Amino acid sequence: MITFLQNCFAGLALGSTYALVALGFVVIYKSTGVINFAQGGLLALGAYLGYTFAENLAMAFALAVVLCCASAALVGAGFERLVLRRMVGQPPFAVIMITIGLLFVLEPLITAIWGFRNKQVPNPWNIRTVEVGGLVFGVRDLWTIGLTAAVVLAFFLFFRYSSLGLAMRATAFDPEAALAQGISARKVYAVSWAIAAALAALAGITMAAGPGGLSPSIGFIALAAFPAMILGGLDSPAGAVLGGLIIGLAEALTRGYQQHLAGWAGDNVSVIVPYLLMIVILLIRPYGLLGTKEVRRL
Amino acid sequence: MAKAHRNLVRGYAEQLRLFGTPWTRFGLLAMLLVFLVLPTVVQDDFWLSVLIYVGITAVGAIGLNLLTGYCGQISLGHAFFIGAGAYVTARVGGDLGLPLPLWLLAAAAVGAALGGLIGPFTLRLRGHYLAIVTLGLIFIGEHLWRNLTGLTGGNSGTSVTAGATIGPVDFGALTIAGESYSRNQGYFWLVWGLVGIVALLAKNLVRTRPGRALQAIRDRDQAAEVIGVRAGRYKIGAFMISSAIAAMAGALFGSYQQFVSPDEWNLLLSIQYIAIVIVGGLGTIFGSVLGAIFVGALPALIDRYSDAIPGVRTSVGGEGFISVFALNQAIFGLLIVLFLVLEPLGLAGIWLRVKNYFKAWPFSY
Predict the structure, then answer these.
(1) How confident is the model at residue A73 (pLDDT cuts 50, 70, 90)?
(2) How far apart, in Å, do the first and last CA atoms of chain A sit?
């Protein structure tokens, strides 16, 4: 029982990282109809910027987090301004490929600047743990979960009550009608890219501050966040969070039990569990758990 | 009555002719001549091997272009089918010792069957969802390749001993009229001959009724269904043909390289193929070959001349800030972005514009 709960906790911590990344995907998809494959690159960029701020410039960790999110947001908005804006109205294939192209430019750039070697990001929690009734919680993991919960809450409040959030929802619902009402679609698109990049950077820095440290492969986690987003439904922020947690739990539980229960499946099955889960769900519910069903009128 | 101008098209049938104008017939003859003569002129093993890899890539790219360029289905999983073809060849061609036509067909059959498995997804999912499912295919495939050790040799890879023999002709050690040719020369003729055959088949496929159905689905699948195109059936068919051709490319790749390992069938390979299709021109067979020549040769050339390119690191601890691998990746990325933003029709589009300019000569403007 203890091991099970422990595994669940690990899954929640992992799942909240997925949720942050998936939320970033959903923000962009909802307002611009683009799936941003470059999210992993932005995540890695944020993590490395955070490392530079915290280690090389010796800033307080909290300040480094804020700064790296802000600078990643600038880069995200820059992408939108320079490249994606030219692609409005192009088929989804072209736009997806553009974001993949951006990812493939961003990744070598990061390794060219920061190198391949593993880095340790200084963080205020180090490897401290708290023990509650036989369960060991890493303080860092608790912070990750808490931070995610706070960000998700802020996110929903922003969308519900702020005028910019309302503008974003309006643009997502019907861009032309929103334009006719005087909403600047350009501003909305830029802001959604900025928000998504900031979310990715936050996920990146919380991951990098963990025991694994920071290495160029950190952006890989964004690929695993795709199933989370698809599972929840492309256009549902709540779905992104739910999907992230489900995928995180499934992955952690597989890692914990697969060797005993299904050793025949080979090593590292937990890595492909998100995709297997996604495929099974898609066969039953093609638009995810909470996604909007596409209506096809004939 | 005056004879019609050579460029004038007077009917639909003439529009659809494969080799309509004298110029295309002349171009075709020139290409055939280059194909026959090139290996005897260029005997350098490096350049021949680059050309062979380019040819293999062209085969795979034609497959992807049928799926993506003509049918509009996004697939990030092309590398999975290429890998499958290579492993089938290792087992069927190597262990069972079957001749070339049989292992090539076996690879194609397995590729088609695997592509058919994706069928249910193509029916239910569109656009973005499909892209991510096929992305999952890469990772699931990599897991399979690493763990099905009996088939693939696991992490350490497997050797492919499949011979390149058709009846009495052995392309691995070719002898024509007393003259013997090297393995690279033989493979050049084999691979580029197959490029020609596959290109011709693909070209004919897209001219026919099913080909036009594919393009109708690409342009608007609901409208296609309304006018009586069975969209679902054609989507699955496109996936099967595309993955069968991909598996054939993988089979050639394995047979030429004689060794394959799971590290080769990764996302980068899929992206390379997508870059080729985009750079060459979506929805043109000729473009796939052009793109394969342009993009497919890049990694080998960068690797060969990495000393001469400033800032490139040739060894792990060496000077320079960017590795050969990273440079390749960055170039693929840049090519995709630049072509999609600036020249969505690709190299084939540029070619078409040049051609049209001269077609109306001297009244071109």
Answers:
(1) very high
(2) 54
| Tokens, residue B78 | 């092309």
Q: Is residue A13 within 8 Å of residue A245, measured between CB atoms?
A: no
DSSP annotation string for B326-357: HHHHHHHHHHHHHHHHH-TTHHHHHHHHHHHH
Residue in the structure block whose two tokens are 């973005």: B128
**CA dist A8 to A2, A81, A261, B43, B291, Å?**
10, 41, 17, 62, 49
Q: Please write down the HEC assignment for all residues of chain A.
A: CHHHHHHHHHHHHHHHHHHHHHHHHHHHHHHHCCCCCCHHHHHHHHHHHHHHHHHHCCCCHHHHHHHHHHHHHHHHHHHHHHCHHHHCCCCHHHHHHHHHHHHHHHHHHHHHHHCCCCECCCCCCCCCEEEECCEEEEHHHHHHHHHHHHHHHHHHHHHHHCHHHHHHHHHHHCHHHHHHCCCCHHHHHHHHHHHHHHHHHHHHHHHHCCCCCECHHHHHHHHHHHHHHHHHCCCCHHHHHHHHHHHHHHHHHHHHHHHHHCHHHCCCHHHHHHHHHHHHHHHHCCCCCCCCCCCCCC
Helix (H, G, I), strand (E, B) or coil at B53: helix
Gap between the Cα atoms of A30 and A1, Å rounded: 40
Contact between residue B126 and residue A33 where contact means Cβ atoms under 8 Å apart: no
Please tell me which residue of chain B has the smallest CA distance to A296: B222
φ/ψ of B259, rounded to 5, equals -155, 135
Which residues are CB-neighbours of A220 under 8 A, at least 6 positions away?
A40
Instruction: Give the A window 269-298 contacts with B, CB below 8 Å.
Output: 269, 271-272, 275-276, 278-279, 282-283, 286-287, 294, 296, 298
**Long-range contacts of range A164-168, CB-CB < 8 Å, 24 or more positions apart?**
A164/A188, A164/A191, A168/A30, A168/A31, A168/A192
SS3 of B66-112: HHHHHCCCCCCCHHHHHHHHHHHHHHHHHHCCCCHHHHHHHHHHHHH
pLDDT of residue B318 exceeding 90, the answer is no
Q: Other CB atoms closer than 10 Å to residue A89's CB: what's the count?
A: 7
Considering only CB atoms, A230 lies closest to which of B72, B129, B274, namely: B129
Among B74-78, B121-125, B267-271, the minimum mean pLDDT is found in B121-125
Please tell me whether the interface predicted TM-score (ipTM) of this complex is above 0.95.
Answer: no
C-alpha distance from residue A106 to each of A40, A41, A132, B220, B265 (Å): 9, 6, 42, 34, 22
Per cent of chain A over pLDDT 70 is 97
CB contact under 8 A, A108 and B140: no
Q: What is the pLDDT of residue B81?
A: 95
Note the pLDDT tens digit of each residue in B5-40: 656 677 777 776 766 677 778 888 888 998 888 888
Closest CA to A39 of A215, A228, A200: A200
Whether residues A97 and B330 touch (CB distance < 8 A) is answered with no
Amino acid at A12: L
Q: Are strands B158-159 and B259-260 parallel, antiparallel or unpaired?
A: antiparallel
- Paired strand residues for A132: A135
Q: And the tokens for B253?
A: 């790749």
